[in-house]
Amino acid sequence: MLKLASRLTVLPPLALCAIVGAGPALALGSDGAGRRTPPLEVAVMTMERQQVPRTVRLPGRAVAYEQVDIRPRVDGVIEAISYVPGKTLAVGDVLFQLDDASYVATVASDEADLAKAEARLPVSQAAYDRAEKLAGKGYTAAEVEEARATLAEAKATLDAAKAALEYARTQLSWTTIRSPIEGVADVQEVSVGDLVTSGQSDALTTVTRLDPIYIDLSETSSRILSFRSQLASGVLKPNDTIDAALTLENGEVYQGSGTLVTLTSTVSTTTGTVTVRFRFDNPDRVILPGMFLRGELTLGTVEAFLVPQRAAERDNTGRLSAFVVGEDGAAKKITFTDIGSTDSAWIVNTGIEPGARLILNGLKTLREGMAVAPVAATLDADGLVVEESDAPPDDGTASADDEADD
């Protein structure tokens, strides 16, 4: 069997002492002096409470203020189309004209029937008056009763003739189809010569009022409950009015603010949202029904801290954590819960002490108790850390006296 032999190298005593003696020097550096790890330089921001507008951004859709599908109320053939699609219509403007010949004839016939009824009534009235006056003197009770029935029938015939004529005239008026609202009509779905019928399912056209216009924004029921809780506790101080600002599909901000109309009293079972309806003026017809938009609502103000989102991390439970500079100059981890956000900051009203120095960077490196060297800083518009000492130099030049002092 082969045996593996190990070889031990024995160093001379002087060489061993040299290596052992060099150990501390290697640990302390080339000069032999001890070096401690310097504190980690971090950017900090002093936290102070401030009045923060409570703003929410919600998705929404435009809904017509008024919209009517135009359908015929009588049967007839389209004789004329009297409107221009896209042109503003007033209430009562003519849209379509149906062939009215048969309806004109019906009116004439009913007018004749009315004339007959009106002529018969005085005759029946006179016959009844005579029979009643001569009752028992040449007229029997049966004859008087018959005269009374004839008079009643004449009156009923007159009333029926009046009603028939009124209905005939109404049907005749329906052959002229008018716009019931102010708005804009779509392209017609029929042509001249088409036969249309009363009660048909297909609309001839649709008239839509575009100014003003409704905007339906959607908010989750859970956030609605949160806002109500904040109002009840006094955390959220409401504005006198709730207005909305809109951003269009192309990112353009719509000029004009909306007025709150209503908050629906039910929650959608499919989306879990509540609809908040606003009314906007839309004189230039920029917003069209069905258009997707985003609304920004300012509900009120809260007294809170603004914690930059880049300075905090969220755990699986939804709580946020960040580091502040402790009294001993070391990093201290704190946890808190936000009540919303604005721009790129969390809105926090508990869990942070006024005057705390919040660490803005180095979250991945920091550990609880790590020594830090705080440097006062702020965040620019892009959310980047800028040291407060990095202010731009003055444009002015030194005075002659200053130069002389130098």
From TrEMBL:
Cellular compartments per GO CC: cell envelope; plasma membrane
Species for this entry: Acuticoccus mangrovi
A GO MF term: transmembrane transporter activity
Record's keyword terms, sorted: Coiled coil, Signal
Domain Multidrug resistance protein MdtA-like alpha-helical hairpin: 108-175
A Pfam family this chain is assigned to: BSH_RND
Residues in the signal sequence: 1-27
Keyword Transcription regulation: no
Coiled-coil regions listed in the entry: 144-171
Residues of the Multidrug resistance protein MdtA-like beta-barrel domain: 212-300
Cited InterPro entries: MdtA-like_b-barrel, MdtA-like_BSH, MdtA-like_HH, RND_pump_MFP
GO biological process: response to antibiotic
Protein name: Efflux RND transporter periplasmic adaptor subunit
Source superkingdom: Bacteria
Multidrug resistance protein MdtA-like barrel-sandwich hybrid domain segment(s): 66-208
SUPFAM superfamilies assigned to the protein according to its UniProt record, in alphabetical order: HlyD-like secretion proteins
Family to which the UniProt record says this protein belongs: Belongs to the membrane fusion protein (MFP) (TC 8.A.1) family.
Residue segments, region Disordered: 383-406
Keyword Signal belongs to the record: yes
